Amino acid sequence: MHLKRLELKGFKSFPTKTEINFNEGITAIVGPNGSGKSNISDAVRWVLGEQSIKSLRGDKLEDVIFAGTIDKKPMNYCEVALTIDNSDEKLNIDFSEVTIKRRAYRNGESGFFLNDKACRLKDIKELLLDTGIGKDGYSIIEQGKVDEILSNNPANRRKVFDEACGISKYRYKKQEAEKNLKNTKENLERIEDVYIEIENRIKPLFAQQKKALRYLELRENLKKLEVNNYIREIKKIDNELSEITKQKTILAKELNEKEVLREKMDKNVELANEEIEKLEENISKLNEYIDSIKDVINQNDSQISLINERINNSKSNIENNKKTLGDFELKLKEDNEKLVELQNKRKVDEEAISVLKKEISDIEQKNSQKEQNLNNLTKNLEDLKDNIITYLNEKKDLSNSLSMLGANIENINSRSEVIDNNIADINTSLEQKKSIYKEKEEKVNEIKVELNKQNTTLNNLREELQNYKNENRNIDIKIQNNNYSQKEYSSKLQIYKDMEKHNEGFNRGVKEVLKNKNLSGICGALGQVITTKAEYEKAIEAALGAYMQNIITTDQFAAKNAIAYLKKNNMGRVTFLPMNVIKSKRINENTINSKTPYIKIASDLVEFDEQYRDIIENILGRTIVIDNIDNGIKFANETNHKFKVVTLDGDILNPGGSLTGGSLKTSTNILSRKRLISDFEEKIQNIKVENEENLKNKQIIIESISKTRQSIDTYENDINALEKDIVKQNTKLTSINYEIDSLKQNIEKLQKEKNGLSSNLDYTSNKIESIEQNIKEIELKEAQNKKKIEELSKIQETHNDDFDKEKKQIESLKLDFVQKSEIFKSTEAEINRIKTEIDDTNKKIIDNKNNIERLEKEIANLKNQSQIQMSESENLNKELSKKNKEMDNAQQAKNKFKENINDLNKQLKAFERQSMELRQSEFKIESKLERLSSNKESYTTRLFEDYDLSYVKALELKDDSIEINKKIFESIKREIASLGNINIDSIKEYKETKERYDFYSEQKNDLEESISAIEKIIEELEVNMKVQFKEQFTQVNENFKYVYKRLFGGGEGELTILDEYNILESDIQITAKPPGKKMKNLNLLSGGEKALTAISILFAIILAKPTPFCILDEIEAPLDDANIFRFGEYLKELSEDTQFIAVTHRRGTMEAADYIYGVTMEKKAISKVIGLDLHEAHKMTDII
Fold first, then answer.
1. CA–CA gap between residue 479 and residue 485 (Å, rounded)
2. pLDDT, tens digit, for every residue of 522-562?
3. What DSSP assignment string belongs to 426-486?
4. In what order do the strands lie in the sheet with 110-114?
5. Which residue has the higher pLDDT, 631 or 744?
6. Is the CB of residue 925 less than 8 Å from the CB of residue 248?
7. β-bridge partners, 1157
8. Binding site residues for ATP, as ranges?
9. Does the pLDDT value for residue 707 go beyond 50?
10. Which residues 6+ apart lie within 8 Å of 810 measured at CB?
11. Strand, coil or helix: 325
C-alpha cells in the first residue's frame, strides 16, 4: 500500500486542478518561501479529517478556499482527493484503489467521499485506524508533530506513542464502550427515578379509583333529575317568547310607516341645502375675484412709488459719475508727462551698454581662438606620448608570441601521430560491438511479441474482474438498501397494526364498545368499514367528520344494549347507526344544475360491504367532492348552496353558504390504515423476493471473482518473468548501444582534432612571418614620435603667456557691463508701470461716460412705465364696483333658503319625538326577548357544559313521570360533596400506571445486565491495551537507541515509562546523550539536538510499525549540514519499506530524493507544480 496520487482544486494557492503523482521511494517537494509547498502537506491533513483550521494556518473554513487575485476571481469551493494503492488489501475495503475526497463551500457546507460516495468522517477514521495514516497518526510529520514529542504536555506526546504502539483502535473502542456505559447508566438513573415515582403513585391511585366509581354513579342519578328540570324550564320560556314576538311585529310595522314620512322630509331639506351650497360657492368665487382685483390695484400703486424712487437714484448717480470723470482726466495728463522723461533716459543708457558689449565681444573672440589653439597643441603632445607607450607594449607582446608559436609547432606534429594509431584501434572494437547488439535486439523483439499477447489477455481478465466486483458491490448496495427499507417498512407496518388493534384515533366510548366482544350486533365503526383511494382520503375524512366515530349496529336493539353498557360503566357517549332503520339519501345526479365539473358524489368514491350501502349513502350520498375551493365556490353558487361540497384538501362548503377550512389536525389515519397496512406488507414481500434473487446472483459472482483472480495471478507471474527478462536484455542493449555511441564519438573527436592540428600548423607558420615584419614597422614609428614631441613643447610655452593677459582685461569690462545693465532694467520697469496706470485711467474714463448715458436712458423708460400703471389701476376700480353689487344679490337668495330649512327642521323634530316613543316600546320588548333568550341559552349551556347534551339530545332523556323534588337534589349533592375531591381520570390512570410499573421494572433489570456486560468489555480492552503497549513500546525504545546512534554518529538515547503501574496514562520521559556529552533530559538539549532527537523517535516508530507512506514537512529545517547528510542517508534506507514525501528546502534531503516536484509562483498567489524524475535525469547526465 502506498500513496499514489493527490489532486487539488481551489485549495489555498492551487485554484486550477493540480495533480501530483507519487512513486515509491522518496519524493521531494521544493520551492522558495511563500511558493505554497507546505500547502500540499496541509491538503493531505485536511482531506484526512483535520478539523482545526488554525493548525492549517487559517482562521475559518473559508481560508482554505482560493481567495482570488487581481487577475483571477476567487473560487466558491475547494476539493482535495487522495488516492491510495490498496492492491495488497491492507485497508479493509474491497477496492484496489481507495480515493478519499473532501469538499468545502464558502457557505459553510462540506462533505467527505470514499471512492466518490458520500460518507462520514467517522467512516474514514475507522478505515485508516491502526495504519498510522490520519491527522493524528505519524504518516504526516510536520514541525508541530516534532513539537508534540518535545512538548511538556504529556497528552500530546502520549498521542504519538499510542498510535505507534497500535492501541489507538483499542482506546477508540474503549471510549465508545465508556460512552455506551455512561449513556446506559444515565438511562438506568432516569428509569429508576420513574420507577420509584410510579411505585409511590400506585396505592393512592387505587383508593382514588374506588371513590371515582361511586361519584360517577351519583352523578348519573343527578343528571336525570337536572336534565328533566332544564327541559321543563325551557318549555315555559318558549311559550313566553312566542307571545312577545307577535307584539314586536305590530310595533315594527308602525315604526316603518313613520320612517317613510321622515325620509320624504329629509329629502326636501337635502335639496334646500344643495341650493345653499351652490350659492355659497358662487359667493366664495366672487370674494376671491374681488380680493384679486384689490391685490392688483395695491401692486400697481407700489410699483409707481418704486419707479419714482428709481428715477431719483439715477439722477444722483449721473452727478457722481461726472465729478469722477474730471479727476481721471487730470491724472492722465500728469502720467503722460512723466513717461516722456523716462523714455529719454532709457535711450541714453541703452547706447552706453551697446558700446561696452561690443568691446567685450571683440576681445573674447580673439582670446577664444588662442585658447582653442593651445588646447589642440596640448592634446597632440599627449597623443604622441601615448603612441610611444603603445609601441613598446606591442613590441613586447609580439616577441612573446614568437616564442609560443615555435613550441606549438613541435606539439602539433607529435599529437598527429598518436591520433592516427587510436583511430585504427577504435574501428576494430566498433565492428565487434555492432554484431553483438544485433543479436540481442532480435531476442528482445521476440520476448515483446509474447509479452503483448500476455498483457492483452491480462487486461481483459482485469476488466472482467472489475466488472464482477462492480456487480458484487452493486448487489451489496441493493441488499443494504433493501434491508434498510424492509426495516423501515416493518416498523411502520407494526405501528399501523398496533393502531388498528387498539383502535387508535377513536374516542374512549367507541374503543370500549369495539373492544367488548360480549356485545352482539356490533359491526364496527364507520371509519373501519369503508376504504378509499389515497387521493380522496382527506376529502372523505372531512366529509365524515364526527361520523367517523359512529358505530354501525345490526338493529336498534344492539345499539340500545351498547348504550346501556356505556352508561353502566360511565365510559362516555357514542352515536350508533342501526342498519334496519337508516335509509339511503343519495342525490339524484340529474337534479344537479351546475356547469362546474365535480369529481363524484362522496358515497361513490368509497368501497364497502353491500350491506352498509344505506348507511353510507345516508351520510355521504348528499356530499359532492370537487377538486379545489375555487371550483367549490362556483359549484355552490350555481346550485344555490343546496348541497354539502368537499374539496380534495378537506375544505367544506356547507348547505346554506357557510365555509369550513384551514389547517387540518394531525390525522390518526383511521381511514387509510388498512390501505397502508396492505401496501407495507406488499412492499416487504417484494423486498424479500428481490433479496433472495440478489443473494443467488452474489454467490455466482463471488465464484467468478475467485476463478478470475487465479487466472490473473498466473498471467501476472508469467508477465513479470517476461518483463524482467526484457529489462535484463534492454539493460544489456543499452549498455552495448552506449559503448557503440561512445566509440563513434571518440572517432569523430579524434578526426576533428587531427583536422584542427593540420590547419593550426599552417596558420602558425604564417603568423611567425607576419609578427617579425610588424616589429620592424613599430620601431620606425617610435623614433618619428619622439622628434615631434620636442618641437611641440616649445610652441606651447609661448602661447600660455599671451592667453593669461587677455583673460584679465575681459573680466574688468564685464563688471562695468553688469552695473549699467541693472540701471537700465530699473528705468524699463518704471516705464512699464506708468503705461499700465495710463491704460487703467483711460478705461475708467470710458466706463464713466457709458454709465452716464445708460442712466439717462433708464430715467426715460421708468417715466413711461409709471404712466401705464396709473391707467390700469383706474380700469380695475370700475370692475370692483360691479362685482360688489353681484355679491349682495347672492347673499339675499341664500338667506331665503335658510328660512325654508328651519321650517322643515321643526316638522322633523315632531316626527322624531313620536318615533322615539315607539322605539322605547320596541326596546322594552327586545329587552324582554333578550332576557328570555338568555335564560333559555343559560339552561341549554348548562345542559352542554354539565352533561355534553344539546337540547334536542336532552329531549331523548325526557321523562314526565319524574318528580322534581328539591330534597332528592340536596341528598345527592350532599353525598357527592362528602366524597371530597374526585379524580375521574384515576380509573384509567390506575390501569395505565400499573402497566407502566410492570414495563419499567422489566427495563430496569435489562439495563442492569447491560452495565455488567459493558464493564466486562472495558476490563478486557484495558488488559489487551496494556499487553500490546508494553510489547510495542519495548520495540520502539530499542529502535530509538539504534536510530539515535545512526543520526548523531554516536551517543545514546532512551525512552522510559514513568509510571509502570499505570502504563496506559503514564507520561513518557525522553533522555539523550549526544556524542561527547553527558546523559541529559530533553529540555537541556540545544534546539538542533532536540529536533534530531524527536526525528530519531519518529523514525524508531516507523521502524517498529511501518506506515505505508510518510509526509515530512520541513522537520529537518533546524539541522546543520552534517546532520542533514546523515538524515538523508538514513531516510534512503527507510524508503525501502515506507514511501516518503518530503517538503524541504535543504540540499541534503533533495540529494536523497528519487523524484522532485518544484512549487513556484509564476503569477502572484497562484502555485504551479513542476515534476522531475531524478533516475531519468541521472541516466541523461551519464549519456551526455
1. 10
2. 999 998 899 999 899 889 988 888 888 899 999 999 999 99
3. HHHHHHHHHHHHHHHHHHHHHHHHHHHHHHHHHHHHHHHHHHHHHHHHHHHHHHHHHHHHH
4. 18-21, 2-9, 77-85, 97-105, 110-114, 117-119
5. 631
6. yes
7. 29, 1171
8. 32-39
9. yes
10. 360, 363, 364, 367
11. helix
Structural domains of the chain in order of their starting residue, each with its CATH number: 1-139+1112-1184 (3.40.50.300), 506-667 (3.30.70.1620)
What pLDDT does 927 receive?
Answer: 73
Give the pLDDT band of residue 64 (cuts 50, 70, 90).
confident
Grade residue 407 by pLDDT with cuts at 50, 70 and 90. low
Phi, psi of 92 (to 5 degrees): -80, 70
What is the Cα–Cα distance from 84 to 1057, expressed in whole angstroms? Answer: 35
Higher-confidence residue: 375 or 78?
A: 78
Measured in whole angstroms, the distance separating CA 289 from the mean position of its chain's CA atoms is 72
* Integer Cα distance of 527 and 673 in angstroms: 10
The angle at the Cα of 453, spanning 452 to 458, to the nearest 5 degrees, equals 95
Residue type, 852: I
Residues 129, 172: Cα–Cα separation, whole Å? 9
What letter represents residue 1075's amino acid? Answer: P
* Residue closest to 1033 by CA, chosen among 985, 1105, 962: 1105
Per the structure block, which three cell numbers stand in for 661?
377550512
DSSP string, 824-844: HHHHHHHHHHHHHHHHHHHHH
Sorted by sequence, the CB contacts under 8 Å of residue 15 that are 6+ apart come out as 9, 66, 72, 75, 1166
- Which residues, other chains included, contact 225 with Cβ-Cβ below 8 Å and sequence gap of 6+? 962, 964, 968, 969, 972
Helix 1087-1104 and helix 154-164, axial crossing angle in degrees, nearest 10: 30
Q: What grid cell was written down for 1166?
A: 497562484
Cα 645 to Cα 167: distance, rounded to the nearest angstrom:
72
> For residue 110, what are the β-bridge partners?
104
CB 222 within 8 A of CB 969: yes
Q: What is the pTM of this model?
A: 0.37
Which contiguous run of DSSP H or E holds residue 82?
A: strand 77-85
CB 50 within 8 A of CB 11: no
Cα 747 from Cα 428, distance rounded (Å): 11
- Among candidate residues 15, 4, 130, the one with its CA nearest the CA of residue 66: 15
In tens, the pLDDT along 770-797 reads 777 777 777 777 777 777 777 777 776 6
Tell me how far apart the alpha carbons of residues 797 and 780 are, in angstroms, rounded to a whole number.
28
Known binding site: residues? Answer: 32-39
Strand partners, 1156: 28, 1172
How does pLDDT run across 721-737, given as a tens digit for each residue? 777 777 677 767 766 77
- Band of residue 151 on the pLDDT scale cut at 50, 70, 90: low
User: What SS3 state is found at 361?
Assistant: helix
Strands across the sheet containing 644-647: 600-601, 623-626, 644-647, 652-653, 659-660
Give the three-class secondary structure for 503: coil
Percent composition of the chain: helix, strand, coil (DSSP 3-state, to 5): 70, 10, 20
Backbone angles phi, psi at 33, to 5 degrees: -60, 135
Q: Name the average pLDDT for the chain.
A: 79
**Mean pLDDT, rounded, for 320-344:** 75
Highest mean pLDDT among 600-614, 809-823, 836-850, 975-989: 600-614
Q: How far apart are CA 174 and CA 1023, in angstroms?
A: 11
Highest mean pLDDT among 191-200, 367-376, 413-422, 714-723: 714-723
Instruction: Find cell 564519438 and name the residue.
Output: 745
Cell numbers of 355, please?
Answer: 558700446
Q: What is the distance between the terminal CA atoms of the chain, rounded to a whole angstrom?
A: 37
Question: pLDDT tens digits for 272-316?
Answer: 777 777 777 777 777 777 778 777 777 777 777 777 777 777 777
Q: Is 651 exposed, middle or buried (0-12, 13-18, 19+ CB in 10 A)?
A: buried
DSSP state of 16: S
What is the distance between the alpha carbons of residues 424 and 431, in angstroms, rounded to a whole number?
A: 12
